[in-house]
Amino acid sequence: SSCGFKRNTVHFERKLRSQGNNKHKHSEMKCEARNRAEHRTSKKLKAHPMEHKVRNRAEHRTSKKLNERNLTMKKIKGGVTAPKGFAAMGLKAGIKKDKKDMAMIYSSTPCVAAGTFTTNQVKAAPVKWDQKMIYENEFSQAVVCNSGVANACTGEEGMKYCEEMAQETAAMLGINKESVLVASTGVIGAQLPMDKIVNGIGMLVPTLDASLEGGHLAAEAIMTTDTVPKEVAVELMIGGKKVTIGGMCKGSGMIHPNMCTMLGFITTDVNISKDLLYEALSNDIKDTFNMISV
User: Fold this and answer.
1) Catalytic residue numbers, as ranges
2) Which of these, 139, 180, 175, 182, lies nearest to 273 by C-alpha position?
């Protein structure tokens, strides 16, 4: 579940100038037609400067928070594998035609985890599984995700498949199934093709890669209607030590209420307690992910 800005809709009424003769009017109409996009953007920014501020509110608030704490965040190359101790991979498991459709993130050691989830009344089976695992267990160590089928509105069978995904991943990695989070995105109402899912897990585990390329391939594998993979990584100093935060997400539609069908995964090598991690995520989510309304 995952990201953004609250959409403000401003209606603009296009007007033609009324001065001059008919010939001038005709010329101005042609000019406006040719440059409509540029005119619209210019008029928006000039007549409604606040809209520009709304679109950048998250960046402004994040910068303000960092400045107040004397922290400087530096953007670096990479995604979920930028922090120490994380490996990832994305590949084709045959769920989708000719596209990557399964991803995995793995931590070499158990790590504390926090999560925020959609407030929608209808929640997919993976959302319910992850809520239970994160709320009831201290540590998580892996995330396995498929795209192409959402495992939403799939009843008891869908929940059983979540457990099977976690169990298969845990067995391959040699960890407890309670430390495995699952995620699915894609077509709603269809059951997961578990034979392809299990085969995909079998291919992912031995190819897990701690390089930046591993994280990038994972970001590609969770895409649905996204036109580009979405990943980011930053460095900052905390207590005199350099720490790294990396992330990837997917979603370009149905991001309301509060992320809805969006997925987002954030990793970090910061030494932090579960309570403090929850506090940081819960406070930040209000001005970032939960400001998107699509």
Assistant:
1) 261
2) 139
